[in-house]
Protein backbone atom coordinates (compact mmCIF):
# COMPACT_ATOMS: atom_id res chain seq x y z
CA UNK A 1 0.00 0.00 0.00
CA UNK A 2 2.94 2.34 0.65
CA UNK A 3 3.96 2.29 -3.02
CA UNK A 4 0.73 3.95 -4.23
CA UNK A 5 0.98 6.77 -1.69
CA UNK A 6 4.61 7.37 -2.65
CA UNK A 7 3.78 7.51 -6.36
CA UNK A 8 0.99 10.05 -5.98
CA UNK A 9 3.23 12.15 -3.71
CA UNK A 10 6.02 12.04 -6.28
CA UNK A 11 3.71 13.26 -9.06
CA UNK A 12 2.68 16.14 -6.80
CA UNK A 13 -1.04 16.09 -7.64
CA UNK A 14 -2.06 17.57 -4.34
CA UNK A 15 -5.73 18.73 -4.37
CA UNK A 16 -4.82 21.87 -2.43
CA UNK A 17 -2.08 22.66 -4.92
CA UNK A 18 -4.46 22.25 -7.85
CA UNK A 19 -6.99 24.58 -6.21
CA UNK A 20 -4.26 27.15 -5.60
CA UNK A 21 -3.09 26.87 -9.20
CA UNK A 22 -6.62 27.28 -10.55
CA UNK A 23 -7.34 30.30 -8.34
CA UNK A 24 -3.97 31.83 -9.16
CA UNK A 25 -4.52 31.28 -12.88
CA UNK A 26 -7.96 32.85 -12.74
CA UNK A 27 -6.64 35.84 -10.82
CA UNK A 28 -3.78 36.34 -13.28
CA UNK A 29 -6.04 36.02 -16.34
CA UNK A 30 -8.53 38.42 -14.74
CA UNK A 31 -5.85 41.01 -14.01
CA UNK A 32 -4.21 40.64 -17.42
CA UNK A 33 -7.59 40.85 -19.14
CA UNK A 34 -8.46 43.98 -17.21
CA UNK A 35 -5.12 45.54 -18.10
CA UNK A 36 -5.56 44.74 -21.81
CA UNK A 37 -9.12 46.09 -21.83
CA UNK A 38 -7.99 49.22 -20.01
CA UNK A 39 -5.10 49.93 -22.38
CA UNK A 40 -7.34 49.18 -25.38
CA UNK A 41 -9.99 51.59 -24.09
CA UNK A 42 -7.35 54.27 -23.49
CA UNK A 43 -6.18 53.96 -27.12
CA UNK A 44 -9.60 53.88 -28.77
CA UNK A 45 -11.55 56.38 -26.67
CA UNK A 46 -10.71 60.05 -27.22
CA UNK A 47 -9.31 61.69 -24.08
CA UNK A 48 -12.10 63.46 -22.26
CA UNK A 49 -11.61 67.17 -21.69
CA UNK A 50 -15.08 67.83 -20.31
CA UNK A 51 -15.79 69.37 -16.95
CA UNK A 52 -16.47 66.83 -14.20
CA UNK A 53 -20.14 65.87 -14.31
CA UNK A 54 -22.18 67.05 -11.34
CA UNK A 55 -23.82 64.49 -9.09
CA UNK A 56 -27.32 65.59 -10.11
CA UNK A 57 -26.51 64.96 -13.76
CA UNK A 58 -25.03 61.58 -12.89
CA UNK A 59 -28.25 60.65 -11.10
CA UNK A 60 -30.35 61.74 -14.07
CA UNK A 61 -28.22 59.74 -16.50
CA UNK A 62 -28.43 56.65 -14.30
CA UNK A 63 -32.20 56.96 -14.00
CA UNK A 64 -32.47 57.27 -17.80
CA UNK A 65 -30.57 54.00 -18.16
CA UNK A 66 -32.86 52.33 -15.63
CA UNK A 67 -30.18 51.88 -12.99
CA UNK A 68 -31.19 53.22 -9.60
CA UNK A 69 -28.71 55.73 -8.23
CA UNK A 70 -26.85 54.66 -5.07
CA UNK A 71 -28.29 55.92 -1.80
CA UNK A 72 -31.94 55.72 -2.77
Automatic annotation (TrEMBL):
GO terms for cellular component: nucleus. Its main location: nucleus. DNA-binding protein that specifically recognizes a negative element (S1F) within the RPS1 promoter. It is found in: Nucleus. One of its GO terms (molecular function) is DNA binding. One of its GO terms (biological process) is regulation of DNA-templated transcription. It comes from the Eukaryota. The chain crosses the membrane at residues 17-41. This is DNA-binding protein S1FA-like. Belongs to the S1FA transcription factor family. Signal peptide: none annotated. Residues 46-62 have a biased composition (Basic residues). Pfam families: S1FA. Keywords: DNA-binding, Membrane, Nucleus, Repressor, Transcription, Transcription regulation, Transmembrane, Transmembrane helix. Residues 45-72 are annotated as: Disordered.
Amino acid sequence: GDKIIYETEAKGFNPGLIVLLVIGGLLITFLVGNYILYSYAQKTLPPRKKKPVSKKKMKRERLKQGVSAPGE
